[in-house]
Amino acid sequence: MKKIPKKIEEVVFSIIALAIAFLALFPLIWMALASFKTKKEVFAVPLKILPEKFMLENFDAIFGDKSISFVRSLLVTFLVSVIAVALSLLINMMAGYVFARMNFYFKKFLWVYCILSMYIPAMTIQLTSFLVVHKLGMIDTLGVLILPGVASGYNIFFFRQFFLNIPLSLEEAAMIDGAGRGKIFFSIFVPLTKGPMVVLGAGTFIGYWNSFIWPSMTITKPEYMQIMQIIRSMRSVYSTNFGAVMAGTTIAVIPPIILFFIFQKHIVKGVVLSGIK
Predict the structure, then answer these.
(1) Per residue in 202-211, is it b (16+ CB within 10 Å) or e — as a string?
(2) The pTM is what?
(3) Which of 28, 81, 192, 202 could make an S-S bridge to 208, C-beta 3.0–4.6 Å?
(4) CA-closest candidate to residue 231, choices 251, 207, 261, 254
C-alpha cells in the first residue's frame, strides 16, 4: 500500500481542522451578526446569516435602558472576577505548596478531604452554602460573590503536583542562605509557576464571569447584579426583541475572548505542561 504524501496529509488535516473550527465558532458568529438584525431577520426561515442592513438600535436599547444598568453590571462582574482570580491563585498556590513541601499533623487526612471535594458536584451544596452565607450576613454583598468559590480542591491538587516536580535543591539552597518559607515561596515557587497560574487563573475568571445560579440565589440589589443575571432579565424585558438580547450577549462574551487572545500562548504552554506532569 502506497504511503500518502505528507503535503496531502497536511491539506486534509487542515481542511478538517477548519471545518471543526467553523462548527465551533458558527454560533458565536451568528449571535454577533444577529445583534445587528431586526426581529424578523432573527427568526427568518431559511436562516439568514448577514443582516439586510446593519443596525445599531439593539445596542442603543441595552445601553440606553436605565432599568437594566448593563454597563454597571459589566464593571461589577469584571471587578468580582479579577479579585476572585487574585485571591484564588494566592490561596490555592499557598495550600499546594504546604501539601507539597511541608509535613504537619493530619496532613494525609486533610489531603484526602481536599481531594474528595473535587468529586462533589457544586449543585449538591448550593443550599447548604446559601444557609451558611445567610447566617454570616453576607447576602447582597460583594463578598458572597467572591469568597465561597475561592478555595478549590482541583486547583490545590494542580499546584501541589507542579510543586512536587520543582527540584528540592533550590529550596535547600535558599534555606542555607537563611531564607524562610515565605521568601522561598514568593521568590522561587511563584516565579516558576507562571504557566499553571495563567491556566487556572483564566479558568477561574471564566467561571466567575459566567456564574448565574449562585448570584441569582444571593444577590437581589441591582448594583451588585452580575452580567449573566442581567442578560437573563433581558429575555423578559426584550421578549419581543431578540436582537437586543443577542447584542447584550455579544458584548458579554468579549472580555473572555480578549483574555484568551492576550494569554493564549501561556494557556497553551500551561495545558501542555499540565499534560506532561
Answers:
(1) bbbbbbbbeb
(2) 0.86
(3) 81
(4) 251
